[in-house]
Amino acid sequence: MLRLLQYCAGLYLLVAVIFTTWSYVLSPVLTLLWNGLAPGSILATSTSSVSGVSPRRTLALLTDPLEVDLDIDHAIPLDENHWADTWPPGYATSETISLPRWDRSRLGATGYELKEETLLSRAFSDAIHPTRIIPFYFKATGTLQSDDVTITTLVTNNRFRVFKQLVERYRGPISVTIHIPLPLHSSFASLKPDHPSRVALNNLHALYASSPLFSEHVDVHLALSPFTNPLSAGKVPSPEGEGGRQFNVWRNAARLFARTDFVMMLDVDFAVCTDWRGAVRDTLRAAASGPNRHLSRTARLQLGGINSADIVGKLREGTAALVVPAFEYVKQEEGIDQRTFPSDKQALLRLAKASPPVIASFHASWAPGHNSTDYEKYYSMPPGSHTVYRVEQYQSAYEPYVITSKRVSWCDERFAGYGGNKAACLFEMYLSGVSFYVLSDHFLIHQSHKYEEEARREERKSNRKLYADFKEESCLRYLYRYYREGTLHAERAANAREECKKIKNIAKTVSQLVND
Predict the structure, then answer these.
(1) pLDDT value at position 303?
(2) Cα diameter, the chain
(3) Could you tell me if 318 and 434 are in contact, meaning their C-beta atoms sit under 8 angstroms apart?
(4) Is 224 strand, coil or helix?
(5) Which of 266, 255, 258, 248 is nearest to 126 (CA)?
(6) pTM of the full predicted structure?
(7) Using CA atoms, how far apart are residues 60 and 118, in angstroms rounded to an integer?
(8) How many CB atoms lie within 10 A of CB 166?
(9) I need a labelling partner for 269 at 20 to 30 A (CA). Which of 31, 157, 171, 378 fits?
(10) In what order do the strands lie in the sheet with 174-181?
(11) Per DSSP, what are the bridge partners of residue 237?
(12) 194 to each of 75, 87, 190, 206, how far by Cα in Å?
């Protein structure tokens, strides 16, 4: 009996030691490793460090990254601890940021604290509310250079697969705003595991863990809103969620948090076919390095076209935008597989000049959208010419894909849904003095997909009048600014002077102001 008691006591002691070691030593250490704090972990999510934003709690990712061909339909669900301990509670946050402030009495900089919620609500005050922006939900760990080009884009959770293709083709910095639906007066922790909102976030984690390219290059910012369907009347909410299609709000968020001086505003369903990033980056560096005699042969060739000092200077100061021409396959079924897309201008021209053409300008049926690019001129320039040409016939519906400085004007956030939103971004850039220059050796190709034609038709109808009002308002705002600055007749105001005369309702007022 004594030996039995001794055996039981020893067994109890062993179990107690194991339990204590696991609870107070091994479990906390493994939790830290799980959350990405271990050196070298490709699944780590860096904390926020932009503009003094206080660090966020790191986010657990899936332990078994999926294969390159991501199957988010079978993603491993995040455990309950993630929703209880990591995820923000809803549309409010108590986090604060520190802003530098000059203190004259102390002759030095002091800090000023402000709630992040307050600052971001002001930054995106024109959004449809409630909308909450969460910067750097995931933050890339790769090294960045200020003269690099960040793709800024927006994604809804039904476009994750095509977004992954963009990441794999570009292999450079990307700042993306991703909409995640969140029902009003709810938190993620309160939702059922199979709720579309929790499924969407789980799929995002699976996407980010599916390739090391994400943790190296991609900054993810979340847009939370309860809007889960297009804003047209009579629609049944979609479980995939389009977030009211607040495209310009999401574009502005992606650009605001981009960490390079130059950005490319791009839709996620376009394939990067040529190395325009390298051409622009090398151009900027060559122009900054000094006289041409110190440059390589390649750099001199680029300086002969894309790198002309005038254009580079304008690009840096925010008065030039570089257009990358957009194309699409004439037959939709031929434009699905990006692996078959041409990768140089010579191959593109063969397809464009075939009889009948295999590839044409993007949305050729809607000429005002891209015709100002002057595709005939683009076709006439031989591959490898390394030149640019200026857009001469601008019109207000022009909406190319452009590389610009982060310093250009922001996109107007009043638009929701399709129609006028991107054109509004480009129109205001133009009024602010931006000139458009086309890269003659580079191009993008649209990946074919079905359009929600009924929703788009309703949204375009509502945005048509909104865009007309926006143009009038913008014209008067910029002309008044130039008048007050005494620059109304300067070169920078030339775009506004000429374009605003075309708007019937304000043409007389503009003429009087300009001729005063």
Answers:
(1) 41
(2) 112
(3) yes
(4) strand
(5) 248
(6) 0.80
(7) 27
(8) 24
(9) 378
(10) 132-138, 218-225, 174-181, 149-156, 262-265, 401-405, 320-324, 435-439, 388-390
(11) none
(12) 12, 17, 12, 15
Reference 306, options 326, 318, 291, 323; nearest CA is 323
Beta carbons within 10 angstroms of residue 394's beta carbon? 17
Neighbouring C-beta atoms of residue 191, cutoff 10 Å = 17
Which residues have a Cβ under 8 Å from the Cβ of 292 and sit 6 or more positions away?
299, 300, 303
DSSP letter string over 301-351? Answer: HHHTTTT-HHHHHHHHHT-EEEEE-EEEESSGGGGS-GGGS--SHHHHHHH
Taking the C-alpha atoms of residue 202 and residue 160, their distance in angstroms, rounded to an integer, is 12
Residue with tokens 């290059």: 217
Contacts of 416 (CB under 8 A, 6+ apart): 128, 231, 244, 245, 246, 247, 459, 463
- Dist CA 257 CA 116 (whole Å): 14
Distance CA 358, CA 121 (A): 47
Tokens 């790769």 sit at which residue?
142
HSE-up of residue 248 (Cα within 13 Å, Cβ side): 26
Count of beta carbons in the 10 Å neighbourhood of residue 135: 21
The whole-angstrom distance between residue 477's C-alpha and the CA centroid of its chain comes to 27
Nearest by Cα to 220 from 264, 179, 176 = 176
Buried/exposed code over 98-113 (b: 16+ C-beta within 10 A; e: otherwise): eeeeeeeeeeeeeeee
Q: How far is CA 364 from the centre of its chain?
A: 25
The CA distance from 309 to 306, in Å, is: 9
Query: How many C-beta neighbours within 10 Å does residue 168 have?
Result: 14
Neighbours of 261 (CB within 10 A): 18
Computed on alpha carbons and rounded to an integer, the radius of gyration of the chain in Å comes to 26
Identity of the residue numbered 221 = H
pLDDT, tens digit (0-9, with 9 covering 90-100), for 323-367: 999 999 999 899 999 999 999 999 999 999 999 999 999 988 778
Q: Residue ranges of the alpha helices (H) in 171-307?
A: 196-209, 212-217, 247-256, 276-288, 297-303
Tell whether the torsion through CA atoms of 509, 511, 514 and 515 is positive or negative: negative
- The runs of H, that is alpha helices, within 61-110 are 80-81
C-alpha dist (Å) from residue 391 to 214, 440, 482: 35, 12, 23
Residue 479 sits at φ, ψ, to 5 deg, of: -65, -40
DSSP state of 53: B
Q: Model confidence over 110-161: pLDDT tens digits?
A: 667 777 777 887 888 888 778 889 999 999 999 999 999 999 999 988 899 9
